[in-house]
Amino acid sequence: MLLSDIKLFSPEIILILGAIFILLYGIFFKKDKNSNKKILYISLISLIASFYCSIYVVDIETNSFNNLLNNNLYTLFFKILVFFGTIVIIYISYDYLKDLSIITPEFFFLILLSLVGILVLISSRNIISMYLGLELQSVCLYILASYRKYDIKSSEAGVKYFIIGALSSGILLYGLSIIYAFTNSTDFYEISKSINLSLQSNENFLIINIGFILILCGLFFKIAVVPFHMWAPDVYEGSPTSITAFFTTIPKIGVIAFLMKFLNTTFESYSDAWFQILYLVSVISMILGSIAAVNQSNIKRLLAYSSISHMGFILIGILTANHIGIKSVQLYISIYMVNVLGIFTCILCLKNKINGYYLEDIKNFSGLLKKNPFLSFSFAILLFSLAGIPPLSGFFGKLYILISAIESKLYVLSVIAVLTSIISAFYYLRIIKVIFFDEPINDIYINITAISRLIIFITLIISIFLIIFLSDFLEIINTTALINN
Amino acid sequence: MTNIPILSLLIFFPFIGSLIILLINKNDQSYERKVKEIGLWVSITNFLLSLILLYSFDKTESQFQFIENFKLINDLGIYYYLGIDGISLSFILLTTLLVPICIITSWNKISKNISYFVASFLIIECFLIGVFSSLDLFIFYIFFEGSLIPLFLIIGIWGGSNRVYASYKFFLFTIFGSLLMLLGILTLYFYSGTSQLTLLINTNIPFILQIWLFLSFFASFAIKIPMWPFHTWLPDAHVEAPTAGSVILAGVILKLGGYGFLRFSLPLFPEASEFFAPFIFILSLIAIIYISLVALAQTNIKKLIAYSSVAHMGFVTIGIFSRNLEGLQGSVFQMISHGLISAALFLSAGFLIDRMKTKNIDNFGGLWNQMPIFSVFFMVYCLGAISFPGTTGFIGEFLILLGAFKINFLISFIAAFGVILSACYVLWLYNRVCFGNNNFKGISDLNTQDMLVFLIFLLLIVILGIYPNFLISFYELSTNMLIVN
Q1: Strands A444-446, A350-352: parallel, antiparallel or unpaired by DSSP?
Q2: Residues B100-131 pLDDT 10s
Q3: Looking at the structure, do residues B216 and B288 belong to the same domain, yes or no?
Q4: How far apart are CA B22 and CA B245, in angstroms?
Q5: Given Cys at both, which of A144, A222, A431, B143 links B130, Cβ 3.0 to 4.6 Å?
Q6: What's the CA gap between B438 and B457, in Å, rounded?
Q7: Quick one: B174 and B210 in the same domain?
Q8: ipTM
Q9: Which domain holds residue B230?
Q10: Is residue B357 domain-shared with residue B389, that is, in the same domain?
């Protein structure tokens, strides 16, 4: 290990040190009443320091640890995205978990470690680093899912997620080992070369294909697309809400970033094979995700299904495999993250006045308009944006995905995408309907802190005014969209 | 005059006004009054601005005027491209006229969340002016679809008892059409490489592609106008919408469809328009005859007027697709005239419903001696609706029949029956409302504020009916250009 490797790995090292420090601090200052607040600040400081390092200290276009990791602008884009997301989630989690009085230093420890896993996954260029990153984030998430340990649903979610996650990791690992066995390399760049060779000489075609499909299955599990989606609704429902917000955004961004890089560089020569797989998965995810969401009464389940259909949408951008497709995925997933985080922040403000539970059942949102028009209109605008109504930001994500589909002459796919977005508009409208049109059933207690107000306000501004700075944002995406090995 | 971006000013002034309204301190004593006053002044200022537009409009210029053109999104070549011709000018004036009237008429009627109500109307105004002045397909689409959100909320929050169903139906119908149009726009964009209308007019699109594109645009415009099999959302939306919502819906939103046909379908897909013309004539004739008969059977006053709108819009589509000078001029005139007349009729209906607390026509009666002034005004509007000579309705329908006569005697012959049928249902409506037994005692007549609004409509209907050339002279050259192209 060289000093330069440490420099290139500094964001992750800072996060790991921060996480360990938090754990130690939690043990030694157990009696301190304000320890959690201090830990929140420590984790934020380490996040920001790590964020700073990943922009200013890490050199772009470099490999580190004997080509285990590769940093370029593309990975930097996704890293910045997950940093922002994690900062928001740590803030909203702090208030939420404190309110449930289950806040412990371990929470911050796990979130930071899981972020390290995602960062490693995003910048990995080797089977080993990729698998390590993926597992690190998954293991942290298994624990986070069951964080409300006295709650049956939360424990169930943890166990379910663990079993399914372990299974999918197994499948993934099996696929990776097959690839390794027939290419004699763990480096994605080397793998790509030997795959091209074997494709030319038509050797081992079938077995590499099988390995490749197993890897895809493992990754599909992680982003919860049909037919590997069964765990998502239960896990999302059972997990503490702020952690559901984490599930729906950050790990998915990591896996999508990796998947896109993996398909477009390492397995570029197999594009015929994965085009068909992704096509099918995308179509059924969009259809099932939107139809199944229609009848959900729990907002977290609904968002789980809606995220399935959004992932289906994103796969369209990946499978087109043209320049605009990759850009559209980056645009779509950033907009998706902003909207979803805004929506979860809104949800976390709502409590039942009588028993103090957080509201999850959609029909209990009725009468929110009377209580707090600002919150209800922000909620509505974020939902409209997620449904893709112009001029809100969600529309531009959809627009770019559709542009990439039409450019690749995938007319049938784009018609399906459009039809499913009409269905999804229907269930987003249902939430808006309950908030705005229904008579109040019971009293809502609104617990909106200054920070969550700020978060909602910022997400709202981004949703409404994205059109103005879209051109600049696309410029950023343009410079980061190139995938290099 | 050319240096001031007057169109952008027209579009964004209401938007800024709505932001100011949303930021007013709600704890203020005179809060509601302030909101309404700001809303009114903003919309009146916008009307005056549009009068400046009218004054500085060059009638002798056949190209688009007041052009603003700069790149909005660099990499796609989406332009913020605005410009108007005579047709757009007429619709912009109609919009800026109706919005202040909407705010005045709901002055004392709406008390729930007044700031959001007024803001919604200003935002609708912004989107509508945007639709009428955009010359880039993407910008057009954004404005076109954006008007959905505020209207959905207006119907859903401030509407009648069955408002949820109506607002859903309205939203899902329109979004279905619009998304299909979006696919059409994207295909067109990739075929020709530009989304600017002025460049698209000169591209030759193969016939088969034209057919598909025409259908995708048709899906959106036919739902919006609405044409016969797609009209079912309209009666529900009208019945449930608050009076001001009905006014803006009947007055301007329905015209988006007709405007779209004129601005995009005819010039971009000339051969497909010719191909589909007989089909559209048949649909329009069915609309005129069948929907008139349906209107005859209505007992709900708002539903009757809504159905009459569908029938009148049937004339508009006949006029547009007869593709001769009389037909086109007549259809633009008919749209403006219907915008005034149906807005006035809905205003009267809303006025009656507010006082009598019933929508059933049979419950009214004998109003002529209770409310003589109202009865006179209502009489003139009804005469306008049956296209009585001397009102704007006559000019529009006469020109359209003349245009249709040139194409086919039979179309004109059948459509003329629609005029007779409209006389049946409208006069019968008037008969049941104003004559007969008096069921209500002590109903107050129009006050000065109402009278002012009613007088504006009456004067416009009569003056433009007697001297139609004032309006026609503005768009004469624009319609000529449509035929030349």
Answers
A1: antiparallel
A2: 998 888 887 777 778 888 899 999 999 999 99
A3: no
A4: 20
A5: B143
A6: 27
A7: yes
A8: 0.86
A9: 1-268
A10: yes
